[in-house]
Design a protein that fits this description.
Layout (H helix, E strand, L loop, with lengths): L4 H37 L3 H14 L3 H18 L2 H14 L6 H14 L3 H14 L5 H20 L3 H14 L6 H62 L33 H37 L1
Helix pairs in contact: 1-2, 2-3, 3-4, 4-5, 5-6, 6-7, 7-8, 8-9, 9-10
């Protein structure tokens, strides 16, 4: 079939218009993207985010779209809008899972999780990022050091100080030229300080508990001696009452029998047999002396334990 010349010319015109539109589209994308980059460098993040989002919307190919989306995410992270950043990361992974930004997105996702308080999820992402970095150049070393440091930060935030110290120590030992060395050393010092504080707190707690136990034991002994002292005092009171002079108002004076009472042959005895009262008095006196001696011993014991308890407090 013979193609007419005007048909060829018409096709060339359509092709030229398509190329021109694509060129104009790319020029517009580059212009807006450059404006966003300038705003980002000047820390005008709200403007940068809007400009990158505009560039994303007018992009004509997957690479431009991925590039604009990546910088939208960076501006959202810089503004602390972690929820929006994670949503855009999910969209970037869905649309362009094998883009040049996929590996870096793992690191940024981990940072977003960390800032949101999802330390376990962040730890997993930092490990994924670390495992994806090949060894062999300074940039890779710095990235590995950063990943190790942030893994330590996740563990530190979770209260696992011993495990966190291992990651900080790896940064200091394996990557001495990394920017993370100084802050890792600072974290190690903090962890050592926390260990010392924990040991002191444990010692103080043990000392306090021991003091309470001693105090309770002393109080128990004091109560025991007080009870013993009260018993001795009651005994002394009983002995004192028992040793009081016999009542003489029970019989008439002179030993006469009351009316209606017949005196025995020979009359009533004037008194008890000789020696009976003397023995009773001596026994009572001995009991009183013994009670007073016990009272003095108990008093001395109580004073001794009170002084001991006061010295411990």
């Amino acid at each position: 079939m013979k193609i007419k010349p005007y048909t060829i010319i018409l096709c060339l015109l359509f092709l030229a218009q398509g190329l021109g539109a694509q060129t104009n589209g790319n020029s517009q994308y580059l212009l807006i993207f450059q404006e966003g980059s300038r705003s980002y460098s000047e820390m005008r993040m709200f403007e940068a985010a809007a400009q990158f989002r505009n560039a994303q919307e007018i992009s004509k190919n997957a690479n431009d779209w991925a590039q604009a989306t990546y910088w939208v995410i960076l501006t959202e992270l810089a503004m602390g809008d972690y929820g929006s950043a994670i949503r855009d990361m999910d969209e970037l992974d869905r649309v362009a899972p094998k883009s040049n930004y996929a590996r870096d997105m793992v690191y940024h996702r981990a940072r977003a999780y960390y800032n949101q308080g999802y330390f376990e999820d962040a730890l997993i992402c930092f490990k994924r990022y670390n495992d994806s970095i090949p060894a062999g150049d300074n940039e890779a070393a710095d990235r590995k050091a950063a990943a190790f440091f942030w893994m330590g930060e996740c563990l530190y935030s979770m209260g696992q100080f011993g495990e966190a110290e291992k990651f900080y120590s790896w940064v200091v030992a394996k990557y001495p030229n990394s920017p993370k060395v100084e802050v890792s050393g600072y974290r190690i010092d903090l962890i050592k300080q926390k260990k010392i504080e924990a040991e002191l707190l444990s010692l103080l707690r043990w000392s306090h508990e021991e003091s309470l136990r001693n105090s309770e034991e002393n109080q128990r002994k004091i109560r025991t001696y007080e009870n013993a002292l009260n018993a001795y005092q009651r005994k002394i009171a009983e002995l004192t009452q028992g040793a009081s002079p016999a009542r003489t108002d029970e019989l008439p004076s002179g030993g006469a029998a009351p009316a209606g009472v017949t005196a025995p042959a020979g009359g009533f005895p004037a008194s008890e047999p000789a020696g009976v009262n003397d023995n009773k008095t001596e026994d009572d006196e001995a009991l009183r002396r013994r009670a007073k001696q016990l009272e003095e011993e108990v008093r001395q014991i109580i004073e001794q334990y009170e002084q001991k308890a006061g010295g411990e407090n």
